[in-house]
Amino acid sequence: MSGSEITIQAADGGEFMGYLSTPESGRGPGVIVIQEIFGVNDVMRGISDSFADAGYMALCPDLFWRQEPGIILSDQSEEEWARAFELFNGFDLDKGVSDLEATISALRGVEGCSEKVGAVGFCLGGRLAYLTATRTDIDAAVGYYGVMLTEHLNETIKAPLVLHMATDDEYCPKDQQEEIKAGLAGNDRVTIYTYDGQDHAFARAGGEHFDQASADAARERTLDHFRLHLG
After folding, report:
1. Which segments of the chain does DSSP mark as H helices, in order?
2. Domains of the chain: residue spans and CATH
3. pLDDT, tens digit, for every residue of 29-85?
4. Per the residue annotation, which of 152, 164, 200, 225 is the catalytic one?
5. What residues contact 47, with CB distance under 8 A and at least 6 apart?
6. What per-residue confidence (pLDDT) applies to 1?
7. Which of 62, 139, 169, 211 is catalytic?
8. Is the pLDDT of residue 97 over 90?
9. Cα angle, residue 144 at apex, residues 142 and 150 outer, rounded to 5°
10. 200 belongs to the catalytic site
11. How far is CA 203 from the centre of its chain?
12. Do 153 and 161 touch, CB atoms closer than 8 A?
């Protein structure tokens, strides 16, 4: 496994960075790792590396590049949280999906990547992972504690989708969780896993709400999903 930065061409001009992590074999299905609100930081790079360790070509794009390229923040200071929310509030969702389409295309073009590509996202990335399943040609998607999903329940889900939902998520209250479950009930393309007593970002290593057991369970379910649909 090794990681390096590559350049991705945006559909409307310009270019942005993506962190590409490659398995030791040099080949495998692709996984787009979609960032939280802290940019392509050590946590996101570590997650990408972990998917490479599992045999996937993992690519994490810099989705804040339109506001400021190369954002790297942590969750360890009030100043960084303030900047992260500023970037979140300034994020153009439609252009973000367009950049993910460009990322999917770029990954499919990387030597050694099979045609099958999945997406996994966290927080803001969880919302975007959901949108890859409705608005792109992704082959499978996984969203961890996605935010604002109630705004997209009317969109047609085209790819197999797993949602990891924390019952005590401060950014997705219980009434929204019930709305999401009701809105997706009976959809055979969607599987929702709930993590009782867990808060937002339970899988963020080093974070305030990190829970090893829940993170491990979610990872195994994610890998099972990708094995089934990506090969």
Report:
1. 42-53, 78-89, 93-108, 124-135, 174-184, 212-230
2. 2-230 (3.40.50.1820)
3. 999 999 999 999 999 999 999 999 999 999 999 999 999 999 999 999 999 999 999
4. 200
5. 33, 58, 60, 120, 122
6. 59
7. 169
8. yes
9. 90
10. yes
11. 12
12. no
